[in-house]
Amino acid sequence: MTPTGLTSTAVATLVLLVVAFASVPFLLSPLLPDIALTFGLSTAESAWAVSLFGATLAIAAPLFGLFGGRFPRLRLIRIGLALFTLGLVGAALAPGFAWLLLALAATGVGAGMYVPTAYSLVGDHVPFAQRGRTMGRVMAGWGYAIIVCIPLGGYLADLAGWRSAMALLAAVATLALLASRLLPAGRAQATGHQPPADLRQLSAAVFLDPGARLILLVNVCNMVAFYGAYTYLGTWLRNGMGMGSDGAGLVILAYGAGLALMTLNSRLLDRLGHRQSLYLAHGGLMVGWLALALSPGPGWAMLALLWIGIVQGAALVGQSTLCSHQSDHGRGAIMAFFTCTTYIGVFAGAALFGPVFSTQGYLTVALLAAALNGVASLLLHLGRHRLRAA
User: Are the beta carbons of 156 and 164 closer than 8 angstroms?
Assistant: First the structure.
């Protein structure tokens, strides 16, 4: 048992679960030109693959968060992982773009079942004073997804086509499904004292809590900015800098390294305070996106992405930790809406930034991302007294 209240094995399993779902939008980005070529589409049209995955996850997460309290957490995690895995297998075998979209929709529903439930386990077992450290370790899965899955997926795509990269994600999801047997039950469920789910109470825990509303709104701004800029990053690196999918994946690796570096050292955020770290993170993201868009070559782009990964890691840990602290009884519902707003960002960022990228270029995309991070920082400043005290 670690000092945080979860065994090292359980934390490692949660990391693997995060790697599985985080890899999907990250890997799809550099593959969009290949998917577009296969089905005779433009890159902006093929980006609906990213948008639909995000949209279905955003819809499914709050539904299962509100009603999921009636079922054991581990059951939701395993059923969700099974559907997630089947969806990825279907995506790898899709004979047409419509089938690909359908498979990714199923993948999004499965992720909507298991992701917020897995996050809730951290809140069930870890006191707030140490929660940032544990949440950071779990969120490091986002970095590992980029460090391991994205370069390997890009290499496989160049070698055998984008379908082989999707098959890799299906294999990772299968491993996560098998490993889910190592997870503990939620503490309240394990002791037999889980109160009956009340839809009105759980909804109120989200929508009537000013602190929860604030963090969710900040998360929307952050995720629309990030995924709007990231979705077209691979295409910009390939078309603007003449790189292949494997080379673009290696440049993007710098983001994953920065994200892992920050999240694995998130005990520093516990000491600094998550409110303060969020101010710094969103300010740092404003600088990072502008530096990336103005990069004269791949080397400078890698440095900018390393910085973006570091400050985005601080934002992810701070937002998820503060969100999990707003309510004890309604934690499952709040974390479900946290996942929902994250993937509203996937959908809205990919859909809204596509026309901007096509007509104005990547510099304008980066300016919009920086502006949204500025809005998030302003919201945190204006609403700082709404957050629940530790």
Answer: yes
